[in-house]
Amino acid sequence: MSAKEYLDSDLDQIFPIVQKMKKEEAAILITQIRETSKKEWPDADKFYFLISHLESIKAIEEEHERLKSLNEVYLIGALLLSGFLVFSIFRQRSLIRKINAQLDDKE
């Protein structure tokens, strides 16, 4: 499909096709749409770059929030593991003391 056909089509019909596009196909389509819209609206490039930049900022912020949540999960996991290891060490030490006390009683 050409850029003009994409622009003239219903969004509900085009959306599944656009979702399946690869990066290279999307880049080609963006270029075609920009060329087509530039003929009718000379400020299309300014609009495109502004929208593109704002979408990038939005994506970066969303990714930052995901990474923050992921770091919190890693921190909780590390704390739980550390707590378990400390518990195991103290439990092991108390069991060793009991065993040593029993061995001392037998002698």
Structural overview:
- This protein is mainly α and 107 residues long.
- It is built from 4 helices and no strands.
- The longest helix is centred in the last third of the chain and has 63 residues.
Brief sketch in words of this structure:
This protein has about 110 residues and is mostly helical. About 90% of the residues lie in helices and about 0% in strands.
Describe this protein with a few key phrases.
single chain; 107 residues; 0% strand; membrane; transmembrane helix; transmembrane
State the low-pLDDT regions, or none: none
Rg, rounded, reads 31 Å
What is the β-strand count?
0
Largest sheet: none
Listing every helix as H and every strand as E from the N terminus to the C terminus, the arrangement reads HHHH
Mean pLDDT, as a whole number?
90
Task: Please give the count of helices.
Answer: 4
Q: Tell me the fraction of residues in β-strands, as a range.
A: under 5%
The amount of helix comes to over 70%
Kindly report how far apart the N and C termini lie: 91 Å
From the helix content, strand content and strand pairing, which structural class follows? mainly alpha
Overall geometry comes to rod-shaped
Keywords: Membrane, Transmembrane, Transmembrane helix
Transmembrane segments: 73-90
